[in-house]
Amino acid sequence: MAEDSARLEALLARTALGDRAAFAELYRATASKLFAVSLRIVRERPLAEEALQDSFVNIWRRSSDYAAARSAPLTWMTAIVRNRSLDIVRRTREQPDVDDELSANLVDETAAPARQAAARRDAHTIRQCLEELDPDQRQTIALAFFHGLTHTELASHLRKPLGTVKTHVRRGLAKLRDCLMGKVEA
Amino acid sequence: MKLSPEGREALAAEYALGTLRGRARARFQSMMAADRAVGDAAARWEAALTPLAGRLAPIEPPSRVWRAIEARISPARPQASSYWRALAMVSGGFATVLLAFMLWTFPGASSEPDFVAVLMAPDSAPRMVVSMHEPDMLKVRMVKPWKPKEGMGLELWVMPKQGKPRSLGMVKNGMGETVIHVTHADPRVRDAVAFAVSLEPMAGSPTGEPTGPVLCSGVIAPVRPA
Fold first, then answer.
1. In this structure, what are the phi and psi dihedrals at residue B113, rounded to the nearest 5 degrees?
2. CB B199, CB B152: distance < 8 Å
3. Range of B38's domain?
């Protein structure tokens, strides 16, 4: 795994120098993993192909930014693919803007400062922490992450009131954060 | 709009999870760009949650995706000058146009080459022309030299269809041409698809692979069947 990461890192470094052969190798090494990530979110192959294409053009252009990123190369690339996929879903799936309420309610200058989570956490840690959530919270968060479901879609899929689903997401994430920070500090 | 630290964490988490959508998502993205603390929080959550995606079984995308990516990052994409736009439109007669360009740039060009490659800088400006002449002459002509850099020189690389770039040695950074003796059978040029020039120490790349920035590159266009 670490060896794999070092190889991808070297390929990204060469890509930043404009090395097309390295970029092609980077694509061959990661495209099937990233295509699976996108397909889960956008659900239609043509859209996933579009997301993958846009993402790799982005990776080509932004490869020199990677040096400054704090994450593993595959994490950095996956985040680009997830974000592009979510943007495409936003464009293609009509949905009410349910999150306005959330962002409106969260402006509170007097709230206590959140503890800082450390930057590096591996997949093992996040999986462990996910296991520690209540089953409802875990299911809701996994559905949102892997399938790109919105709050509204989660509610209809789980046959639960929207407010309940939002609470599961919010509390689940807060618990995840505490768990992740605990693991880092321990 | 200024976010409280609590609000920042909660929004960053929902952004990374993917549940922050619509206008709220777009608004959060502009906050990420404007406020370092917001950007950092989003990056932390992304780094924490994204490794979960590693659990998914890989699915092979169709080969047209890579072809489309390659086309989109190609330096021959028309951007600024109408010359290059015209060049891209006549892709069928690509080699002919390159050849015409070469003859036009270098009226003294001798025999008709087997292939040519115009090496372009990232801004799509043509900087060098590589051409192969029977039986064993690879000519590298400068279109526009770079400002000399102390102790550094230009190294020419062959980009094969697969595998690592292969060095053809250093080339002169000045007007005129460098001739490299190499035949079609030479393993260094086997399956060559493109040429590139990188900035390296005068003695050549210490690793045998490009280490400095790639200054220009261009794909090979056959002029006549090999």
1. -80, 165
2. yes
3. 5-55
CATH number at B115 reads: 2.60.40
Residue B108 distance to chain A (closest CA, Å) = 32
Whether residues B48 and B85 share a domain: the answer is no
- As a whole number of angstroms, the distance between CA A129 and CA A172 comes to 10
Tell me which residues of chain A, numbers 91 to 150, contact chain B at a CB-CB cutoff of 8 Å: 95-100, 102-103, 106-114, 117, 119-123, 126-127, 130, 141, 144-146, 148-150
- Does residue B44 sit in the same domain as residue B96? no
pLDDT in tens, A21-70: 999 999 999 999 999 999 988 989 999 999 999 999 999 988 877 866 66
Q: Is the pTM of this model over 0.80?
A: no
Q: Regarding beta strands B177-181 and B137-142, do their DSSP bridges make them parallel or antiparallel, or are they unpaired?
A: antiparallel
ipTM over 0.90: no
Among the partner residues A19, A56, A114, nearest to B6 by beta-carbon distance: A114
Number of structural domains found in chain B: 2
Min Cα distance B90 → chain A (Å) is 24
Asked whether residue B41 falls in the same domain as residue B123, the answer is no
* Per-residue pLDDT reduced to its tens digit, A71-113: 788 988 999 999 999 888 877 665 444 444 443 333 322 222 2
Residues B181 and B110 in one domain: yes
Gap from A160 CA to chain B (nearest CA, Å):
16
Cβ separation A40–B56 shorter than 8 A: yes
Domain A114-185 falls under CATH 3.30.70.100: no
As a whole number of angstroms, the distance between CA B104 and CA B218 comes to 18
> A2-92: what CATH class?
mainly alpha
For residues B137 and B42, membership in a common domain is answered with no
The CA distance from A95 to A30, in Å, is 31
Q: Is position B76 within any domain?
A: no
Give the torsion sign (CA, B96, B102, B106, B110). negative
Task: Give the percent of chain A with pLDDT over 70.
Answer: 76
Q: Where are the domains of chain A?
A: 2-92, 114-185
Report the pLDDT value the prediction gives residue A67, as an integer from 0 to 100. Answer: 67
